[in-house]
Design goal:
The structure is a single chain. 30% of the residues are buried. The chain is 6% helix and 64% strand. The chain has a 28-stranded antiparallel beta sheet that branches. Strands 9-10-15-16-13-14 form a six-stranded mixed beta sheet, with no helix packed on it. Strands 1, 4, 7 and 8 form a four-stranded mixed beta sheet that branches. It has two domains: 2-118, Immunoglobulin-like (Sandwich); 128-812, TonB-dependent receptor, beta-barrel domain (Maltoporin, Chain A), CATH 2.40.170.20. A hairpin with a 3-residue loop joins strand 25 and strand 26 (451-474). The chain has 813 residues and is mainly beta. The longest helix has 25 residues, at 2-26. The protein starts with a helix and ends in a 20-residue tail after the last strand.
Length: 813
């Protein structure tokens, strides 16, 4: 019996091994690997490679060669295949293969198409839009927009709104990335950086309204600005400049970009400077009320501000390929605003009327402000490519050093209606802030034939020290105002981990992920002894589902959760006085804002997109202006409002009407409701709500026989909208820009006018309970613009007589 059992077990084992061998042999998947070179044995990077079965029984798949000309197709089943390799300027090559095992091909040599190269003339093309499962990609390389700066391109990017010092996506402030690296600058500094960066080097803008788990949970959306890489060994560069003339002052910007690439090293350097003066004139009207809710006094202010800046921006990176699998990268972003060229001059006259609107007195304020900023950021990246094609491990370390200092002198004269002096007052303020930010991150990507898995972890530490010293004057003697001087220390540590999985089928695409973040915070006011310690753990799920019904129809559904942490200035409890009767203050106990965002979209013929969305904001943080009716003081206070809800329908299209005319349309009809606590009105809960319409139409025209002259004509309209307790007036603007290419697109210049009819003035009205304020803001919105760009260095494509559509160049990327 024992023998029978032993033999029987052997037979079972052999049978199982046989079946397993048969199964794995039957289901075995193979690969094809190869290298692409020219006749001089130099690698051809970013060539297009298409793989398809000869009988068409399986979907066609494609890839591009890497920097060393290598490519691969993984997880292939046995079949007869055709490989097609193409690259602009070379003859297309086809290879037929009978795959019964894995194959490593001999080097594939592409032959230059001399006839085609001889007849290439590079012309500007229109921007294009591509929708992926989790983002919209706005391709602008070599388009009519490429002679502008990057900020101007954002103004034309679908879903992005740039106005009055803000960048928003669906009414929320986005987080800005450049080549998937986060930019650790304030929204004002980011605008300065982008305004000083030429769009000549810009490839595309990715608008990610619901960012996946890979990205930090901070912020309402992500804008990833993708700069092109130098594909050609050697050196090339460009210089650019632009001039804008407003109603008061001229504004300049100039800069230069340089690329240098060898087999191992690729470098990029961009420098820009933007010396300018900007003028703003505000008319302010404030009605203060008595305890019986009748009018006590009315203040009418004429506010004139001139600000002079000259911000130096430096972007640089260097990438070094250690070998085929390992590479290092060092990137830096620097913004330097020197003290000698960063000055603000404010003059304001405030007329004070009594309850019968009889002039009681006037106070005249003269404010002189000088500040200085050094914002230096450095990122070190290491990437290790594993054996499986596309599988990689990356490690990143980042350091930001932010150093800001400011000095202001405020003199105020109080006079009677006959201009006789009542009294005068003077104070000075010195403030500084030093922030040190350090982050470490590790990411892992595992791709399959139709799926991809990503995971990673990140830790970041923030240390901030803010100092405010205020001086008062008594009989001309300066003394420290101890009641309004303080040091605020702030420390924050954030630990994060994420997982993400995506899968593509023939008609469906799925991407899902989960991010967890644990945050600890300590805020300490030295003068008051106020200390705030808090910590919280938050989970941020995301889901993206897209269905390609057929070649003309696709629908998609997105959901994710986001967080918006208070800015450092909003946490700072200092009272920073703008004048005798107005100050800015923060709250160290502010809570983070948590958003839930749902999106349902439909795209027709890859050109027309309809999108329904719903966003719930819990504990939004806003800077709200409150009027203290007892003391006749204005308080600009960072505070949590209770909630905000918005939902609406967006429509986007980017279509070619004729061979020479294309247009882009973005329209949005949305409802916005926010609830906030009226701090100066018994802390009552108050609600504002309104339907708003936003519309933007941009037309692109190609002129002349060789299409070297391009006209861009755009119109923007926004109806009334609420921002917390403020109702902002409707604005509109017409812009046009004419661009001419010269010398086979090596040079170009443009002229245009922004806001032709000067219609982008904003009136802000705050009227509820015992609050009654109206601000009418007048900026230099109407600008005459002129710009130029010249490229030099080593270019792969030579030009002569024949014209090809630059859409073919997209295949290089």
């Amino acid at each position: 019996m024992f023998v029978y059992t032993k033999e029987f077990m052997r037979l079972k084992l052999i049978l199982v091994l046989f079946l397993l061998g048969f199964f794995f042999g039957f289901s075995q998947e193979f690969y094809i690997k190869g290298d692409i070179k020219d006749v001089n044995n130099q690698p051809i990077a970013f060539a297009n490679i298409i793989l398809k079965t000869q009988d068409g029984s399986q979907p066609t798949i494609g890839t591009t060669s890497d920097d060393l000309g290598a490519f691969s197709f993984m997880d292939l089943s046995p079949d007869n295949y055709t490989i097609e390799i193409s690259f602009l300027g070379f003859k297309t090559k086809r290879i037929e293969l009978d795959i019964q095992s894995s194959v490593t091909l001999e080097p594939i040599i592409l032959i230059e198409d001399a006839q085609q190269l001889e007849g290439v003339t590079v012309i500007a093309k229109r921007p294009t839009i591509k929708r992926l499962v989790d983002r919209l990609v706005f391709n602008v390389e070599n388009s009519t927009l490429s002679n502008n700066n990057v900020l101007d391109v954002l103004k034309n990017t679908p879903g992005v709104f740039v106005n009055d010092g803000k960048i928003t996506v669906k009414q929320s402030i986005p987080t800005i990335y450049i080549n998937d690296r986060r930019v650790y600058l304030s929204i004002e500094e980011i605008q300065q950086l982008l305004e000083g960066t030429t769009a000549t080097n810009l490839k595309s803008v990715e608008v990610i309204t619901n960012p996946p788990a890979k990205y930090e949970a901070e912020g309402g959306a992500v804008i990833n600005i993708v700069m092109r890489k130098n594909l050609i060994t050697g050196y090339n560069g460009s210089v650019f400049g632009n001039y804008k003339q407003g109603s008061e002052f001229p504004k300049y910007a100039y800069g230069t970009s340089h690329y240098f690439k060898t087999k191992k090293i690729s470098t990029y350097l961009n420098f820009s400077d933007s010396p300018k003066r900007e003028f703003r004139n505000n008319k302010e009207n404030i009605n203060f009320f008595a305890s019986d809710e009748t009018l006590a006094t009315s203040w009418q202010t004429d506010y004139r501000r001139t600000r002079r800046t000259s911000n130096k921006n430096i972007n640089a990176n260097i990438d070094y390929d250690i070998d085929d699998r390992n590479s290092l990268g060092l990137a830096t972003t620097m913004l330097i605003a020197p003290r000698k060229s960063t000055k603000t001059f404010v003059n304001s006259d405030t007329e004070v009327f009594d309850r019968d609107m009889v002039l009681d007195s006037t106070f005249i304020t003269d404010n002189r402000l000088v500040d200085e900023t050094f914002n230096l950021a450095f990122t070190l990246d290491y990437v290790h490519k594993l054996k499986k094609e596309g599988e990689k491990l990356s490690v990143s370390a980042h350091h930001t050093n932010y150093d800001f200092s400011s000095f202001q002198n405020v003199d105020t004269d109080y006079v009677f209606p006959d201009n006789t002096l009542i009294r005068n007052n003077r104070f000075q303020t010195f403030s500084s802030q030093v922030i040190k930010l350090n982050t470490g991150q590790i990411d892992y990507v595992l791709p399959g034939s139709s799926w991809q898995f990503e995971t990673g972890a990140k830790v970041s530490g923030i240390n901030s020290e803010s100092i405010l010293t205020q001086y008062i004057f008594d009989n001309g003697e300066r003394a420290i105002d101890a009641d309004n001087s303080d040091t605020f220390l702030y420390d924050e540590t954030n630990y994060a981990a994420y997982m993400s999985y995506s899968k593509d089928w023939e008609a469906w695409s799925l991407k899902t992920g989960l991010r967890a973040e644990y945050t600890t915070i300590n805020g300490n006011s030295v003068a008051t002894g106020q200390n705030n310690d808090t910590d919280y753990l938050k989970l941020f799920p995301s889901l993206y589902l897209l269905n390609k019904i057929d070649e003309n129809h696709q629908i998609y559904l997105n959901y994710n959760k986001r967080i918006y942490r208070p800015r450092y200035s909003q946490l700072n409890p200092f009272k920073y006085f703008l004048n005798d009767n107005a100050y800015v203050t923060g709250d160290p106990n502010l809570k983070p804002q948590i958003d839930d965002v749902f999106t349902l979209g439909y795209t027709f013929k890859n050109a027309y997109t309809f999108e329904l969305y719903y966003r719930y904001e819990n504990d939004p943080t806003l800077e709200i202006v409150f009027q203290d009716n007892d003391e006749n003081i204005l308080k600009y206070s960072g505070t949590n409002i209770d909630r905000s809800i918005s939902y609406g329908l967006d429509f986007t299209t980017f279509s070619q009407l004729t061979d020479r005319w294309s247009f882009y349309v973005l329209s949005s009809l949305f409802f916005y409701e926010n609830q906030f606590y009226a701090l100066e009105s018994g802390n009552q809960l108050f609600t504002n709500e309104k339907w708003t319409f936003y519309g933007n139409v941009v037309n692109y025209f190609s002129l002349l026989k060789d299409r070297s002259l391009n006209l861009e004509l755009s119109y923007l309209y926004i109806s009334q909208i609420y921002d917390g307790p403020k109702e902002l007036s409707a604005v509109s603007g017409l812009n046009f820009n004419l661009r001419k290419s010269l010398w086979n697109n090596r040079a170009s210049f443009n002229i245009g006018v922004q806001d032709v009819f000067n219609g982008q003035f904003v009136t802000s009205t705050t009227q509820y309970l015992n609050q009654d304020m109206i601000y009418r803001s007048r900026k230099e919105n109407r600008l005459f613009t002129f710009g130029f760009n010249y490229k030099f260095g080593n270019y792969k494509l030579k030009s002569s007589k024949r014209v090809i559509d630059l859409e073919e160049r997209e295949r290089l990327d």
